[in-house]
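note to self — DONT lose this again. spent like an hour looking for the file last time. sequence + predicted structure for the chain T wanted, 342 res
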Amino acid sequence: MPAAMSRCSLAALAASIALSAAPGCDDSVRFREDPTQFDTFQQTPSALVDILWVVDNSGTMVEERAMLGEKFDQFMGRLVASGTDYHIGIISTDTEDLNHSGKLQGDPRVITPATPDPKAAFAANVQLPQTASRIEKGLEAARLALSDELLAGHNAGFLRAEASLFVIVVSDEDDQSRGPIGYYSRWLEHIKGTGNENLVSLSSIVGPMPSGCGDTSGAGERYIQVQELTGGLFHSICSEDYGLVVDELGVTAAGLVRKFYLSEIPQVDTLQVLEYLQEDPVCELQSDCEADRVCGAGYHCARALDSALWIYQESDNAIFFAGEYLPPASAFIEVAYYRLGG
């Protein structure tokens, strides 16, 4: 997923700052002489993001489109809370109808923070007219939508050079666009130019591999492959409630990061996670901070995050915020731990 994340190992402080993980100790952070690994990350700042929804407008998708519109308040809630400057556009998977073929649908075509009621605008725009075509070409529709021709004409004002781009596909069938998967993933990666590949991703709400949702939905294999190649998110269209789906997509579109990759393998029972903002008080000693704060490796009075707010994912060697809580925009996250075997 596109996200601004910095990582550094504060090895120079390891000799003087460590976290207590001894049996019988409380959750407070104490200073010891034992070597500790510190990984410091920064959550994405408030961002510019352009979000292109590619929505299957076939007859079998009526209920899914309705659920998407109903749950859009959660998607918008994440964008608004993050202070994100967003552009949102909706296209269909129909590339045969000349009124579609990558053209942004609805009024207004581009939903922005200045739109009087963005939730209502999205709910209306996503109710696309049903297509007569039985061939869904979501990848090709996205390519057309972001082509120079349409961006200079019908879709003018949607794509901004400085903004991240999130493409989100919703379909109960696999993509039938011509051309190999590699073509579409490379095209997406190069929209923002060489070196800016992390600003673009495709996420998919489609049927899972290998067989979709049985009789109601086929597997979205091609969409999933492009999603994996561009670092997007996958969600199953089989879900009976899109609330969590659109909520997480809102987080992703806002650029807020859920997962922070550690630089070393930790002794899991020693993991501690701290959070602070740049404006929080600076410190050199624990006594410089209030009782509920910790003087962390970044010399700021930080808040120790309860372990109920995060989990350690061994498969990715990462700290993952799996629930409702996310570190706010621009927050610093410090992860301190003893290295395995250290």
